[in-house]
Amino acid sequence: MHDDNDHHHHEHAHDHGHHHDNHYSDMQARVKALETVLTEKGLIDPGAIDAIVDTYQTKVGPRNGARVVAKAWSDPGFAEWLKRDATAAISSLGYTGRQGEHMRAVFNTDETHNLVVCTLCSCYPWSVLGLPPVWYKAPAYRSRAVIDPRGVLAEFGVTLPEGQKIRVWDSTAELRYLVIPQRPEGTEGWSEERLADLVSRDAMIGAGLAAVPGAAS
């Protein structure tokens, strides 16, 4: 079974130096140095930066996305809207992108499992998933998710049926993806709030599955 890869051209500028393993530590050092200089000059408020980080790390986290998934599981009309125009459907819940990027929702089925990657940098739907995980930015993930998605999933503890193909979606600054995992069995009649507890960040990237009832963390 061949795995499908949907590669979308990145029209925005990418720093191809990202392929060096020391890029992240170098970039973090540069950002910290710039922050220090700007703070000393009174141009930025460190508290404002902390507030932004806290918003995406703890207040947003993956909870927005989990609510989108739970609503799609519970409301067929919303699920159809999500398929047609994910940007509008997600915005209707009050979640909008930082830079006005468009969203596309891709639905896992018995036939197809979806996996999201950004091959040239780390484009990511912050508004629904919060801060990206470190591994999402790593060169190893960005390259291997395309070359060997089944092997990558196995390393995340996800073993798919042999006949289920994997479709890889390449995010850009203009278009970002949200994976809608399959709804676990045994959740009939559950509230959206309870369903959302089964949805992890990894499941919405495609690197995981929704938790089975009784096994959610």
Q: In which order are the strands of the major sheet placed? A: 1-4-3
Radius of gyration: 18 Å
Q: Main beta sheet, described?
A: 3 strands, parallel
Residue share in β-strands? 5-15%
Overall number of strands: 5
Distance between the termini: 33 Å
Percentage of helical residues?
A: 40-55%
CATH architecture group name of the largest domain: Alpha-Beta Complex
CATH H-level superfamily of the largest domain: Nitrile hydratase alpha /Thiocyanate hydrolase gamma
What does this structure look like?
The protein is of the alpha/beta class. It folds into two domains: 20-60; 62-217, Nitrile hydratase alpha /Thiocyanate hydrolase gamma (Nitrile Hydratase, Chain A). It has eleven helices and five strands. It has helices spanning 23-40, 46-60, 63-74, 76-84, 86-91, 126-129, 134-137, 139-147, 149-155, 192-196, 201-205, and strands at residues 4-6, 102-107, 112-117, 165-170, 175-180. The strands form two sheets. The chain has a three-stranded parallel beta sheet with strand order 1-4-3, with helices on one face. Helix 3 (63-74) crosses helix 4 (76-84). The longest helix is centred in the N-terminal third of the chain and has 18 residues, at 23-40. It starts with a strand and ends in a 12-residue tail after the last helix.
